[in-house]
Amino acid sequence: MKTWAEVEKIQPLASRIITNSIKKDRISHAYLIQGERGTGKEAIARLIAKGLFCEEKRGIEPCNECVNCKRITSGNHPDVHWIEPEGKSIKKEQVENLQKEFTYSGLESNQKVYVVKDADTLTTNASNRILKFLEEPSQQTTAIMLTENSRAILTTIRSRCQVIDLKPLNPASFRDKLKEEGMDNRNASLFSVLTNNLDEAKHWSEEEWFAESRKLMVQLIEMFSSKPEDVYLFIHSHLLPHLKDRDNQERGLDLLLLAFRDILYFSIGNEEGLVFFDSQEEIVERLAMEFSQEKLIEILNAILQAKRKLKQNVQPMLVFEQLMLQIKR
Predict the structure, then answer these.
(1) Torsion (CA) 270, 275, 281, 285 in degrees, nearest 10
(2) Integer distance in angstroms from the first to the last C-alpha of the chain?
(3) What is the pLDDT along the chain (329 residues), one digit of tens a residue?
(4) How many CA atoms does the CB half-sphere of 148 hold within 13 Å?
(5) Lower Cβ count inside 10 Å, N or C end of the chain?
(6) pTM as predicted
(7) What single DSSP character describes residue 221?
(8) What is the DSSP letter of 36?
């Protein structure tokens, strides 16, 4: 999304709130933009920054052609600073370095913007540093905090930001868009519930990693019914080596969640809701006979709990081992 008109189609309320502020020249000194993955948080952050730096603005819309717009798009504008987790969290030292940068005059103007990605991963010390920053805002400083998990943000930080809630996107509409782009129905159905980013979905559909991940999840689920004693060996020798970083581990749990959800859907007769398996596949019918509906609901809750633990920076090996134990019970 490169224009507010595009945001309006997907996030009408958020677009209206921010563009009204732009029209009145009342951009907030701090925003907390919260929404699920793929709902447009980073695109909105860039548009806010462009609105402050664009040299050829057309009403509320940035031109997207001037030097400032192009540098913001590429992440290379000297007065627009992005902070994201180093490893699994945003640390105090990162915020201290940002504060140091902001003691200097802007390289090209006195306007400065900083964007904090995954703001829910701020350590306690980093959160306190950001809070101090927000409590003493410069008149020409704009802070933009992005998060999927607003409950992990300090209440004192939330109270100093204008909170923008992004609504979940419509998977059915995105699935149709993917099919229009030439993706087969099965992949379009799966990727439409995993992301709302067109480029990301296309990349995944062509990526060997994703195809291998789906294969590993099927093998793992079958193993629970046929060779449960081999599950731990499988996750240590195959699954975890494949899921090398946090993003991959989260995507892996997403796939596992969708696979077990499909089995539950099949068992209750909701075959149209399947996205991981094809309803004509013999395997899904067989697996639906292996797991009771009560057990499937228990497994889905366990996977959701494992996803939360990953977000809380629990050691991945421990998260997966505990999850396997819960599924085996």
Answers:
(1) -40
(2) 46
(3) 789 999 998 899 999 999 999 999 899 999 999 998 778 899 999 999 999 999 999 999 999 999 999 999 999 999 999 999 987 789 999 999 988 877 776 566 778 999 999 999 999 999 999 998 888 766 688 999 999 888 889 999 999 999 999 988 778 888 888 898 899 888 999 998 888 777 788 888 888 999 999 999 999 999 988 888 999 999 999 999 999 888 899 999 999 999 999 999 999 999 989 999 987 778 899 999 999 999 999 999 999 999 989 887 789 999 999 999 999 87
(4) 12
(5) C
(6) 0.68
(7) H
(8) -
Q: Which of 35, 7, 43 is nearest to 200 (CA)?
A: 43
Is the sign of the CA dihedral 319, 321, 322, 326 positive or negative?
positive
CATH number at residue 143: 3.40.50.300
Closest CA to 98 of 144, 164, 43: 144
> Looking at the structure, do residues 156 and 214 belong to the same domain, yes or no?
no
Q: Is residue 304 part of a domain?
A: yes
**DSSP strand pairing (162-165 vs 30-34):** parallel
CB 287 within 8 A of CB 263: yes
In a domain, 238, yes or no: yes
For residue 64, give the nearest of 41, 56, 81 by alpha carbon.
56
Task: Specify the residue for token string 């195959």.
Answer: 238
Listed residue (53, 233, 29, 35) closest to 137, CA to CA? 29
Residue 150 falls in which region: left (phi positive, over 0), alpha (psi -120 to 50) or beta: alpha
Which one, of 248, 240, 257, 252, lies nearest residue 303 by Cα? 257
| Residue 324 domain boundaries | 207-328
Burial of 139 (0-12, 13-18, 19+ CB in 10 A): exposed
Tally Cβ neighbours within 10 Å of residue 116.
27
Backbone angles phi, psi at 146, to 5 degrees: -115, 135
Coil, helix or strand at residue 104: coil
Question: Which three-class secondary structure string do you get for 72-87?
Answer: HHHCCCCCEEEECCEC
Question: Coil, strand, or helix at residue 144?
Answer: strand
Amino acid at 56: E
Asked if 112 and 261 sit in the same domain, the reply is no
